[in-house]
Amino acid sequence: MTIHIFLLLIISALVSRSSVHCSTDIECSFEEDTCTIQKDHGTTARWIRWSGASAGFVDHTYGNNSGFFMSVHGRGTARLLIEVFDSGPKCLTFWYNMFDQTRYDDGSLRIYQQNDSNIYDEPIWKVTGDFGNDWRPIELDLTSSINNKAIIEAKQPTDSSISIDDIVLTDGRCLGIYSEKPNISCTFEYNSCGYKTDPTVDVEWIRQQAEKGAYGDGPDEDHTLGFDYGHYLCVDPDTTPRYTGQRAIVVSPIHNKTADDYCVFFWYYIFRSRGEMFVLLQQSNQTDIMWNFPGDSNYLPALWREGSFQITNTDDTFRLIFEAIRGEYASQGAFCIDDVDIFNGVCEHTTPTPKKQSEVPWQVKNIEDAGCTFEDNDCGYGPYDEKETSWGIKQGYDHTVGENGHYLGIKYEKSGWAYRTPYIYSNSVSNCLKFNYRCLGDICPEGPLHIHIMDQAIGEEALSVDPFSKVYTRGNTGVKQWKQIQIDLPQTNGNFTVIFELVVETMFKFGIDDVTFYNQECSAVKPEPFISTIDCDFEAEKMCGYSQPGTRKEWIRFQGPTPSLGTGPDNDHTLNTREGHYIYVEASEREREGVFFYIRTPMFRHSNGPMCFRFWYHMQGEHTGDLRIQIQGQTWGYFRREDLWSERSSTSGWTLGTIDLDNERTMYDEHVQIQFVAFIAGGHEGDVALDDITLVDNVCNVPKPAITHSHCQFNSHPNKCNYNDYLPNHTWYPWKHQYASWHIGSTTSIGISKGVNSFLYADIEQENKHVAIVSPNFEYGERYCLQFYYIIKQDFSLNIRSSNQSLLTSLTRQMAPSWAKHSLEWEPLKEDEQFAIMFEAKIGHKRNGFVAIDDISIGKGHCPVPEIVDKIDCNFEKDCDLSTNISLANGWQLSNKETYKHTKLPNIDNTYGTPSGHYYFISFRHTQPPTERNFLRTPVVEMTTNKRCLQFYYYMNSNVISSLNVYIDDASIKHFPVDPIWHSIGKKGNRWNRVQVDIGYTKGNYSIVFEPRSGSEHHVDIAIDDVVLLNKTCIKVIEPKWTSTIDCDFESENICGYKDEHTAKFNWTQIKGKTKTINSGPTQDHTYISEEKEGNYMYIETSNPRIPFDAAELSSPLLPTSADSKCLQFWYHMHGKSIGSLEVYRVTPAINEKMLLWSNTGDQGDNWKKAILPLNVKRYFKNGYKELLNHSMKVHFKGIVGYGHEGDIAIDDVKVVIMSCDPPPDTPPVSAIFCDFENGVKRCGFEENTNEDGSGADDSINVLDWTFFNASTIGNQTISKDTNVVLSQSQSSYIFAKASELQTGQRVVLTSSAISAGLHHCLHYSYVSTGDFIIDIYTKSSSGKVGIVFALPRRHQATWRKRSVNLFPQSETFTIVFEGMVGRERTGLMALDDIMVENGKCTTASAGRPEIKKTTVRPEVTESSSQFTAIVCLSVFFAIVMILLVLLSLYHFKFVKQPKGSDNTNTDDRLIQEEITNKYSTSF
C-alpha cells in the first residue's frame, strides 16, 4: 500500500510539473496563420485573417499594406478563443484598431474570461466607439485555473471596422506599459472614462452630444472638437420636476499617486443658471472644496470657460467630485463639463475663486492705499448702512482680469442703497477718484449713480446733502463693456469716505471695479504704461500661455529645419539659429489636407487707444495654404468670422506681419484674444511657421523723430536700436542676427568671435539676393562720422549708401576673416532734411564666404582723432589699429595661410610658426597707379627725445624686382618723407627675416609707415609680422633666451595650459592621491614622491562607462622653435592587469604633421617610470647626422583603455631640455601575433604597403592601400556589389581590395611585425580570393632573405576559407608578407581576416585557434517551433507515466496477486488500484 501511494504522488507531481513547464505562451502576428487561436463559428459575424492591401490600411506588425491582422467580417458578433493551459497570473497584450465612419459609438470590443461552461460574465475590459484609423495597445492581467479561455468579442455594426493584431500571452503580471487603467483626464469623446454619477442625489450627470437633442440652454458644440457631434457631460436637462436646490454629483475614477503636486484643468459651460457649481477633492475620507462658481450666470454669454486649481502635498490616491446645485429659476439653465485634464507639477495659472470678505469695517487708509480690485477681498469697503446686504463681491466678467474675476456688484430693486470706501486720511489737497462701472440688464436708466463725500470734521450725514457728482450711464453699457470714470474730489478738513449711491426705481444690475485714488488732480494723472502679456519668442517650453482648442495639438514648438524638404524655416527668427525655437504646423501628413489648425494668444486687455500687433511668419513651398488671423472680444464672446489679416502666397524666408487694432475692430479697454488659423491645402511643401509675436500700444508705423547720434552693438534684435530691414520686394533679404560663440555660414570653416557680444551677418544662403538694413533717420548736419567693425570673406562685398542711394564707400574681401575697423566722414546733401544709412551686402558669382558688421556708430561732426600711443607691440592676432590708405583687393590685408590658400602667402606666421597665425600681407604689381601708394600705417606714437628701436619681421620671396621701405611720418613736417629709415631689395628666401632699426629724435608725434615697391608687371608678395617699438636702442636689445612652454608638474589649476582634444572619447583628469580603482593607478604623484606633501598628476580613469579602445588625448601648449636638439622627458605610471596603451605624439601645425614618437602597452609595474625621447629630430642619416625640425610643435599624450577597469594610466613632471638623446630602440621581435582587424591594421603591429617585395624593388607607384571594412560603422551601401557576399558572411571587420579599383600589375601588401628567430611557428589566417587576383604569402628575414610560404589559388566563389601553415625555424628575425597582385582581367576581390602566429608546430588546420567573437543573431521562435517544443515535452511526460504504470503492474503481479484457492482478502485494495489506473490511463 505504501509503494502505491508513493508512485501515485510521483505521477501527480509529474502531472503538475509537466503542465507548468510544457505550457506554451502565445505570440501571434497573424503573418502565417492564426497560430493556436480559435474562431467561434457559432456567431453571426466572423474574424478573418486580412491583409493591409485588402483592408485599405496598414497592419501593426510591419506598418505596411503587405502585413496581416485579424478583422471582423460581417455585421453582428464575432469571437476569438485563446486557450489558457495553466493556472497562475497571465498577461494578455494586443493592438486594436476601431473606427466608424458614422461617428456613432455602436461598435464595441470586449474581453471575457470563460470557465468550462459557456456562460459569459461581465467583461474584464471593453471599449466602445470611434478611435480613428490608428492602432492602439492594451494589456490585461488574467487570473485563471486550468482549461480557461480568454475570449475576444467584437460587436460590429454597418460602416464600422474592428481589427486586432500582435496578440501576446505570457506568464506573470503585466508590466504596465500599455495599461488603460482609469484616469481623471477625459475628453468624453469615446466613453465616460470611469466617471460615475451619484444615484443618491436628485439629478444625474449624463454624457451627450448637441446633435442628439441637447437641451435648449446647453452648448451647441463640445469643447474638444468644437462640433455638434462632440461629447461632454451635462446635468440631465430632462429631469422633472426641476426645482431650486436640486443637486447633481459626478465622481471621477481614483487617481493613483504619481507626484506630490498636481494641476487640474477643466472646461465648464454654465448658462442662464443662478445656481452654483463646486469641484471637490476627496482623499483619505476628507473632502475639500477646490473651486466653485458662486452663481448667477444669467447674463454671461453661452461659452465654454476654463477652470483650474492646484492640488498640493497629496499623500494618497484621490478622486474629483463635480457638484452642481440648481438655483433660482430652476426651470432654465445648464451645467456642463468637458476636457478634464491633470498634470504633475505646479499650475502656470489658476482661475480665481471667491475670497472671504474683510471683517475689519471702517478702516482708515492713506489715499494711495484706498483703491481696490476686489480680487482678494473687499479692501475694507462696506455698506453705508450696516444692515444693507444687497451690495457684495460678485464673480464673473470683471474689469481687472476678465473672465472669472471679481467686482463690487448689486442687484438693484429699490432706491436708497449705498456702499462706501474705507475712511481716507485728509491731506487738504484735491484728489482724483477713478473707477470702472457697468450696467447690466435690458433697461439701464440714465444717471443712477450718485457720488457723495462724508467729511468726519463736518460730521453731517452724507446722503442728506446733494451729491457732488452724478454718473450718467447713458443707457446699457453692454453685457461685458466696462466704462471708466474720473472725478476730482473736493478738499476736506478731516478724514473722509466716498459713498456710491444707486438712485433708481427700476430693477437692474450694476457693478463697480478697479477703484483708484490719486493724490493729485485728475488732469495731472499720467496713464499707466502698457505691458503686453502676449509677447512670445517661443524659447520657453510652455509657449507663453498660448493654447490650442480641442485635443489635436498640431502647432508644434520646434527648432532647426522642419522634416519636409522644400518648405519650412531652417532657423528661428529670434536668434536666427538652429538652436532657437518657433512654432509650426507640419503639412506632409495626408490626413491634414484641407484642415484648419488653430492657436490662440492668452486673453489681454485692449488699451484705451490704438495698438499694433506684430508677428513673423514663414510660408514657403509649392503647396502653401493660407494663414488667417481672427479676434474675439468678450463683449460678443466668439471669434469673428471676418479675418483681421490673411496671407495665401508663398514667402521667401521670415516675413513681418502687422495689424492695427483700433476701436473699429475691438472696443477699447476690453479683454480680447487673437487666434491664428493655418489652412493646409495639400502636399508636403506647405509648412506654416510663426515666431516673435509682440503687442505695443501705438499704431504700427509710427514715424520716429530724427536724431543726431546712434550707437548699436546688436546685443539684442536690431530693431531695439531702430535699425530696420530694407525689404522693398522679394529679392531683398534681412541681415541675420547671431551670437559670436556660434559658427556662421554653411561654408565657414572658423567661428568668428567678438567678446560675448552679437553681430549681424549675411552668408551664401541669401544667394543672388540683396541683403540690407537701414539705420534710424538723422537730421541734417554739415558733417557726419560713421565708424563700424566688419569682416568680409571671399566672394562678398559691403556697400555703404545714403538714403538717396548714393554710394559712400565699398569694401571688398579680406584675405583672412578678422574684425577690422572702418571710419568714414561725409557731408550729407543739404536738400536732405533727414537721411539714413543703408548697409548692403552682395555676393558674387563664386557663391562662397560671408560678411559681418558690428558696433555701428553714427554721429554729427568729425570722427574722433586717433589716440596717441607710447608703445607698439603687435603680432596681428588681434586688432592693433593699423590702417591702410586704400580698401582695394590689392592693398595690405590681414591674412594667414590656413584660411586663404594664396600661393605666395607664407606657410606659417612668425609669432607661432603655424598656418593659423596672422600677419599683414600684400600682393601687387608695377601697373598700379602711382597715386595709389600702398601704405600700412601704425597708430600715432608720442614724440620722443631718445632713440627707440623698431623691430619687425618681414617675408620677401618673389622672383621679381621688389623692395620694402619703412618711413617715419612726423606730424610736425607738412609733407610725407622722401627717404626711408630702412629698406630692403630682392628675394630673401622662404623664411621670416628680422629687422632692427633705430628711430631718432622727432619734433612731433609720428607714425611708422611700411610701403612695398615693385619694378615689374608681375605680382610682388610681401608680408610683415611682430612689429615692436622698444624704449631702448637696438644695440641694447638682447635676444630672449629660449624657454620651454610645456614644462609642467600639473600642480596648478590650469594645468599649465594643457587641454583635452575635443575629438577624443573622454578626458584626462587632474587628481591628488590615489585613483578610485583598486589594484590600478599610482598612490601619489611623482613630483612630491619623496616628501610628505601630496601633489597632483594627470591620469585616465578606465572604469565604467569606458569601453576597450576608448582614448583620451591631452595636448600641450605650443612649443617655440629653436636651432638646438630638444629632448622630451616625462614620468609615467602603468599598473594593472587591464592596462591598455600610452602613446606620445609630436604635432607640427605648420606642416600639418602628427607623428608617433613613443608608445608602451601593458602592466609596467607599480612604480613611476621615466621616459626620455628626442623631440625635434626630423630624420637620422647613416653617417650619424640628424636633421632637426625647424617649426613650433605640440606634444600629445594619448591614453588608450584596455580590456577591463584595472587599467588607469598616469603621467607627471613633463619637461623639455636642450640636449641630444638617442632615438628609441627598435621594437623587439615577438613570438606570437593575433589580429582580427576589429581596431584597424596598425593596432596589431601590421604595416600596409611597405614598398618591399621579394625582389627588393622599390615600385611605390604600383603599391596601393588596402580598404578597411569596419562592421560597426560602415553600412552595406558603402560596399560595392561584388563585396556584398563577403559582408553577408562576416559580422566583424577585415581588410580587402577590389581588382576593379587597381590597374594590371598593381599590388596591395600587408607586412607583420618582426617575429623571433629559432622557433617553430604556426600561421593561421582566413581569406577570400576571387577573379584575377594572384596572392603570395612569403617571409622576409632581417637581412632581406625571402622564403615562399604559400601561393593561394584563385576561387570562383566569394567564400571565407581558413588555412594553417607550418613555419620552420629561421636563423634571423623575420616578417610575414601578404601580397596580392591584379592580373589582366582586373576582376574579383581579395580579403584577409583573423591572422594569427603561434609558437610551435600546427597540430590541425585549426589547432590552437582562439575563439573569434562574431555578432550572433538569436533565431526567431516561430509558432511551429513553439508547438513542436510543447509536443516533445508532452511526449516525454507520457513516456514517463507509461513506464511507471508498467512498474506498478509488475509490482501488483508479483507481490499482490493471490494464489488459486485463496480467500482474496485484498479485493478492495485491488479494485481501488484498478480504478486509479484506469482513471489516469483515460485522462492521458
Which helices and strands appear, and what pairs or packs with what?
Layout: H1 2-21, E1 26-28, E2 38-39, E3 46-51, H2 52-55, E4 68-73, E5 76-84, E6 88-100, E7 108-114, E8 125-128, E9 136-144, E10 148-156, E11 160-171, E12 196-197, E13 205-209, E14 231-235, E15 247-251, E16 262-271, E17 276-283, E18 286-293, E19 305-311, E20 319-325, E21 334-344, E22 364-365, E23 382-383, E24 392-396, E25 405-412, E26 417-420, E27 423-424, E28 431-440, E29 449-455, E30 469-471, E31 483-489, E32 496-502, E33 508-518, E34 556-558, E35 582-585, E36 595-600, E37 604-605, E38 611-619, E39 626-633, E40 645-647, E41 655-661, E42 671-680, E43 688-696, E44 709-712, E45 724-725, E46 732-733, E47 736-739, E48 758-763, E49 770-774, E50 778-779, E51 784-794, E52 796-802, E53 807-811, E54 820-826, E55 834-835, E56 837-843, E57 849-860, E58 872-874, E59 883-884, E60 893-895, E61 919-924, E62 936-937, E63 948-956, E64 962-970, E65 982-985, E66 993-999, E67 1006-1014, E68 1020-1030, E69 1059-1060, E70 1069-1072, E71 1096-1100, E72 1111-1115, E73 1126-1134, E74 1141-1148, E75 1153-1161, E76 1169-1174, E77 1177-1180, E78 1186-1188, ...
Parallel strand pairs: 22-27, 46-49
Antiparallel strand pairs: 1-11, 2-5, 3-4, 4-11, 5-10, 6-9, 6-11, 7-8, 7-10, 12-15, 13-14, 14-21, 15-20, 16-19, 16-21, 17-18, 17-20, 23-26, 24-25, 25-33, 26-32, 28-31, 28-33, 29-30, 29-32, 34-35, 35-43, 36-42, 37-42, 38-41, 38-43, 39-40, 39-42, 44-57, 45-49, 47-48, 48-57, 49-56, 50-55, 51-54, ...
